[in-house]
Amino acid sequence: TEIYTLSLHDALPILTRFTEGYAAAVAPLSRALHAFGEPDGGAADRRWLWLACRLAQDLWDDELWYLLATRGVSVARDTGALHLLPTALNYLAALNVHSGAFATAAGLIEEVGSITEATGIPPLRYAEAKLAAARGDQSQTLALLDWGRRNAADRGEGSAVGGTFYFTALLHNAHGHYGEALAAARRACEYEDVVFYGWALVELVEAGVRGGHPEEAAEAVGRLSERTQASGTDWALGTEARCRALVSDDESFYRESADRLARSRAVVDLARSRLVYGEWLRRANRRVDAREQLRAAHEMFSRMGAAGYAERARRE
Question: 81 pLDDT exceeds 90?
Answer without folding.
Answer: no
